[in-house]
């Protein structure tokens, strides 16, 4: 049974009903509808921590989805799962792929910055100050772009840029 048919909470059920109604009335192909159903099921599984199931649905959606913008969100969500699992290199790969298709995806830019910042902190702990500077500078570049696209978001990143004097570099 598809995940969309076993949602237990009111919000998921409401979203499913609305999404199904929209799919029936919007002029979309069967392929696009199937891609969206897999994407929706992937989001539902991901929100419940069922990452293996979510990945299966996202990969199925990617096999069907041809629109670059829509693919960017699928790729972004796959990156989120890999980041949650501590697979930062794989997460970066998916975030970069998402940005190739949608350069305005501020949340992907933010997540890339978070990974570089984390790696910078690890370098500091290992006594690699030159490496940490490079990683922190890279994080700053991605945060600046994310903030440019979404100026009211990422307040902590804005504060970090100010306190580390990376705001204008």
Which keywords apply here?
membrane, 169 residues, 8 helices, photosynthesis, chloroplast, TPR-like_helical_dom_sf
Strand-residue proportion? under 5%
Oligomeric grouping of the chains: single chain
Which spans have pLDDT < 50 for at least 5 consecutive residues? none
Largest sheet: none
What is the string of helix and strand elements?
Answer: HHHHHHHH
DSSP summary, beta strand count: 0
Specify the overall morphology: elongated
Q: Residue share in helices?
A: over 70%
Please state the average pLDDT score.
89
Number of helices, where a helix is a run of at least 4 consecutive DSSP H or I residues: 8
**From the alpha-carbon coordinates, what is the Rg to the nearest angstrom?**
18 Å
End-to-end span in angstroms?
Answer: 53 Å
Counting helices, strands and paired strands, the structural category is mainly alpha
GO biological process, one term: photosynthesis
Keywords: Chloroplast, Membrane, Photosynthesis, Plastid, Repeat, Thylakoid, TPR repeat
TPR repeats: 35-68, 72-105, 72-105, 120-153
Subcellular location: Plastid, Chloroplast thylakoid membrane
How would you explain this protein's 3D organization?
Pfam families: TPR_1 (PF00515). Its main location: plastid. It comes from Pseudobryopsis hainanensis. 76% of the residues lie in helices and 0% in strands. The longest helix is centred in the last third of the chain and has 21 residues, at 129-149. The chain starts with 9 loop residues before the first helix and ends in a 6-residue tail after the last helix. The mean pLDDT is 89. It has eight helices and no strands. With 169 residues, it is mostly helical.
